[in-house]
Amino acid sequence: MKWNALSILLFILSLSIFLFSACDDGRIYEHTVQNAGDGRVLKLTGRLAGCEKWTEDYSVVVAGFNGKSEYAVMTKSVSSAAADAVQQVVMAGIGEEVSTVELCVINKLRKRVLTFLSMDCAFFADDTLYMDAGTLDVSMYATIQDQLFNTTCANCHGASTQAAAGLYLTAGHSYAALLNQPSTVMPGELLLKPHDAENSLLYRLLSTDITASWSYDHSKEVLSETMQQLVADWIEGGAEK
Hints:
Blueprint: H1 5-23, H2 25-38, E1 40-49, E2 58-65, E3 74-77, E4 87-94, E5 100-107, E6 112-120, E7 128-137, H3 140-149, H4 174-178, H5 201-207, H6 225-236
Parallel strand pairs: 1-7
Antiparallel strand pairs: 1-4, 2-3, 2-5, 5-6
């Protein structure tokens, strides 16, 4: 068989078209598969301090919940960042079963412990939800200050003109007032002894009825076992600020 110049040119052209067709499929196929599996996307932006201050039993996460359970359907960990650094956390693949997305703390079983921010998935636009967290101190101590001391304890301990027993539990004062400080009411007791919840009066008066004979039973302040455990774990973990 003899090949002339025209035959060779036609053969090369046909081979080029075949190879180009075979190779061109790659990027289009990859893009299609990625979109099909992504689902909805949450993009959280903010300055979040103190993520690393939690003990190993807890995690600061972005999570999706279905509204029927306290256990997260899906989670994305929030990492610690440099002071004042703006973080962005992206959680993709949010399915239709997820009804709310939250910036929250969960335990090892993925059960919600507390929530900092929550948004309804009905607000998704173009399959993307933007959550602006602003500037938040999400450390363990700051959370206890916000969720416990500020909401209940400070009503008697510092929010008014005087603090009961001279103990100020207001923001900016509680840590120094508690850490290794002797009780003025129960001699020989320390208010907060790091790594020892059972010998920290703070924990015992919140979790037992030892103050039932006082003018006020302090165990009524914390009826949530979750909050009691949070205080215990914070102290056992070293009571970091």
